[in-house]
Every structure is written in structure tokens, then in C-alpha cells.
TrEMBL record:
Name of the protein this chain belongs to: Major facilitator superfamily (MFS) profile domain-containing protein
UniProt cross-references to InterPro entries, sorted A to Z: MFS, MFS_trans_sf, Proton-linked_MCT
Positions with biased composition (Acidic residues): 1-10
Family as reported in the entry's similarity comment: Belongs to the major facilitator superfamily. Monocarboxylate porter (TC 2.A.1.13) family.
An annotated Gene Ontology molecular function: transmembrane transporter activity
Stretch list, region Disordered: 1-27
Cellular component annotations (GO), alphabetically ordered: membrane
Top-level taxonomy: Eukaryota, Fungi, Dikarya, Ascomycota, Pezizomycotina
Membrane topology: Multi-pass membrane protein
Record organism: Zasmidium cellare ATCC 36951
Regions that span the bilayer: 81-101, 108-131, 137-157, 164-185, 197-220, 240-265, 277-299
Main location class: membrane
Length: 316
């Protein structure tokens, strides 16, 4: 009996025994492909692109105003370097911003981007020489835009699946709307309050609208693997490199009209100097449909068919 009791005592749980609970595996959040939170990310991305490429697309008006010599005297080629460096900094900064975003530092990037865009405009409003404008508008605003541009697109893919193309198209339309609103602001204010306060008002408008992504933008998931700063294997990927070269030559010529059309219209006598500033708005109005409709048609046409059709249309 004593042996049986000892055996029962061993087999029965005691009050001090600790039951181990099964550990549930880590489950990745499912892609919502819509819903309030997902579309709020589109709104936040729209505001970020509104204040990056929307502001960059306004440079045609700045080019025309700088050409007048009211602030400083420089050649057309020198002035265009401001916008060229601004665009370069957006993309070049993006190469460094990607790994930071992959580590989950979205809020830090948003704060840095807002500071760069707003502070750059405030410093630009005080500029009186070409080099001051180059540093403020080219480098500071460009770096700030780079901190915003990468998160504006990267944040959408975890939230959307079948509607990803539409979501990116809607977010990218912020570039067109910004390229409409900011040139109108510039054209309306420049003769009333002068260059300094016109630029400050644009900076304050950027600050107000960039508070939206700070409040609503949230990463759904962190990337499973943080990419390297420089991945040499990408240079051995033929289709990827072909896409890179195609984008390179496309961007090399796409923004020439945004730079020089207003100045060409005013200097050639086609339009007055004040009316020529609105040509940038007309260009960006057309680009709105080019940024949204193809992404909507992508759901039915397929990427290759749509890409071929748009390239043939633009070439003709």
C-alpha cells in the first residue's frame, strides 16, 4: 500500500506544480486591403507626396521669378541646378532612408522630413544670393523631401493587396494637386506680399498639412529582413537593371517642361509674366489623370500591357 500511495502521489499534480502554457506562434497581421486604417495611410501618404513632389513641381514658377533678377542674378543653367539638386537629394537620401525605415523608425523620419521641408522654406525666404537659395531650396528641402518620399510609398504595401495599385495612384496624385495649389499660391501672393512672405506662407501650409501623416501614419508590420545599404547582387539582376535604366532616362527628360515652360512663354511674348506662372498648374492638372487612371486600369489590363500603351502614347 505504501508503494501504491507513493506512486499515486508522484503521478498526481501537487498544488506547487506549474502548468506550462503552450506558446502561440507569431502570426503576421493580415493584409486588410481596405478599411478605415488602411485608407488613412493613403491620406497620410498623399500629404507627404503633396509636400515633396508637389513642392518640387512648383519650381517652374521659382525659375521664372529667379530669372527676373529681383533676388539675385544667375544664368538659366545655374538656376536650374537648384531644382536638379533638390530632385537628386530626394532620391539619394532615399537610399539611406530605406534601411532606417526597415528598422521601424517611421516617426523619426516624419519629424526629420517635416523639419527639412519647413525649415528650408523659412531659410529660403531670407535668401539674397544664388548660393543661399541653392543650400536652402536645393539641399535642405530636398533632404527633407527624401525623408518623406520613401515612407509615403513603403507604408502602403502591407495594407493593400489587390487594391495596392489604386492606393499608390491616389497617393501619387498628391504630387499633381500640390503642383496645382502651390503655384497658384505663389502666383497670387508674389505681387501682394513679396517673395519672402510668399515662401513663408508655403512653408506654413506644408507644416499644417504634414501634421496629418504624423498623426495617422502607422507601420502595420516591420520588414522581416532589413536590407543592406548597398546590395551588390541587385546589379546582377537583368530585369531590375533594365527597369532602372528605363526610369533613369524617363526622369532625365520628364521635368524639363516643368522647369522652363513658364519662362519660355513669358520671354517669348506668348503670355504675360503673371499668366505664364499658371502653366505649371495646367501641366500638373494633366498629370493628375496620368497618375490615377493608369493605376485604376492596372486591375484589368496588366502591368506589361499598360506600360506599353503609356510609353507609346507618351512617345507619340
Amino acid at each position: 500500500m505504501s508503494g501504491q500511495a507513493a506512486e499515486d502521489e508522484i503521478s498526481s499534480p501537487t498544488t506547487n506544480a506549474v502548468e506550462e502554457k503552450p506558446v502561440s506562434p507569431l502570426v503576421e497581421p493580415q493584409c486588410p486591403d481596405g478599411g478605415l486604417q488602411a485608407w488613412l495611410q493613403v491620406l497620410g501618404s498623399w500629404m507627404m507626396i503633396f509636400n515633396t513632389w508637389g513642392i518640387l513641381n512648383t519650381f517652374g514658377d521659382y525659375q521664372t521669378y529667379y530669372e527676373s533678377g529681383r533676388i539675385f542674378h544667375a544664368s538659366s543653367s545655374d538656376i536650374s541646378w537648384i531644382r536638379s539638386i533638390q530632385s537628386f537629394m530626394v532620391f539619394a537620401t532615399g537610399a539611406l532612408i530605406g534601411p532606417i525605415y526597415d528598422r521601424g523608425h517611421l516617426r523619426l523620419l516624419l519629424i526629420m522630413g517635416v523639419f527639412g521641408v519647413v525649415f528650408g522654406h523659412m531659410m529660403l525666404s531670407l535668401c539674397h544670393t544664388f548660393w543661399e537659395a541653392l543650400l536652402a531650396q536645393g539641399f535642405v528641402v530636398g533632404i527633407g523631401g527624401g525623408c518623406l518620399f520613401v515612407p509615403s510609398l513603403a507604408i502602403l504595401s502591407p495594407y493593400f493587396n489587390t487594391r495596392l495599385g489604386l492606393a499608390i495612384g491616389l497617393a501619387a496624385s498628391g504630387s499633381s494637386i500640390g503642383g496645382i495649389i502651390y503655384p497658384v499660391m505663389f502666383a497670387k501672393l508674389i505681387d501682394q506680399v513679396g517673395f519672402g512672405w510668399t515662401t513663408r506662407i508655403i512653408g506654413f501650409a506644408a507644416l499644417a498639412t504634414l501634421l496629418v501623416p504624423i498623426c495617422v501614419s502607422r507601420m502595420l508590420t516591420k520588414p522581416g529582413r532589413v536590407r543592406k545599404l548597398l546590395d551588390m547582387t541587385a546589379f546582377t539582376d537583368g530585369p531590375f537593371m533594365l527597369c532602372v535604366f528605363g526610369c533613369f532616362f524617363g526622369f532625365a527628360g520628364i521635368y524639363v517642361a516643368f522647369f522652363y515652360v513658364p519662362f519660355f512663354a513669358s520671354s517669348s511674348g506668348f503670355w504675360s509674366a503673371s499668366k505664364s506662372l499658371y502653366l505649371v498648374c495646367i501641366l500638373n492638372t494633366g498629370s493628375f489623370f496620368g497618375r490615377t487612371l493608369p493605376n485604376w486600369l492596372l486591375l484589368w489590363s496588366g502591368l506589361q500591357n499598360l506600360g506599353l500603351a503609356t510609353n507609346v502614347t507618351c512617345s507619340s
